[in-house]
Structures are given as C-alpha cells and as structure tokens.
Amino acid sequence: MPAKETLFGLSLLPYLLFLWFLTRSGQAPRLALIGFYLTLLFIAVTVPVGIYAERVYGLSLANVDFLHGSAEFFLTLANICIALGFKQAIQGSQSQND
What we know:
This protein is mainly alpha-helical. It has a domain at 32-98. The protein has helices spanning 4-25, 30-57, 65-97. The chain is elongated, with a radius of gyration of 17 Å.
C-alpha cells in the first residue's frame, strides 16, 4: 500500500490538469477560477502547518484548533470565490437572456 504522501502527490496531478484545462478554455468565470487556484494555496498552507503541528505539538493538524482553523480559512475563501464566481456568471447569463 502506498504511503499517504505518495497518494497525496498523485491526487494533485488530476487537479493541476483540471486547472490547466479550465484556464486554457477561457470559459470559466474569473472569480471562480481564482477560487480554484486558491485551493492550491490552501494545500500549500496546510501541508507545512500540518508538519508543524506534528513536530511541535505531537498532534495531527485536526487536533490543534487554532492552526486547523487558520489553514481552513484558505479553503473557505476558495469556496466563497468559486460560489460567487459561478453565481455572477449565472446572473450575467440570465440578464443576457432577458
């Protein structure tokens, strides 16, 4: 069974391909695209913070509330951008149809 780090690395590849195709298509709402890229920021923040939690506190990130909440902020920000981006796109499409 592969180590969790290997699986994590492998799971990043499809997401990066998704971002590449989405960006190249030019059809994604700009704010939503920013949100998808912010998800990468969430990952970039979570990995070192998780390592810090294990080394300093001897606990997983999920068990160190102030670190976990701080890291999850970036995921929340990404999700808000994605939702608002698609909401704006839907509203823009509906107003063009009217």
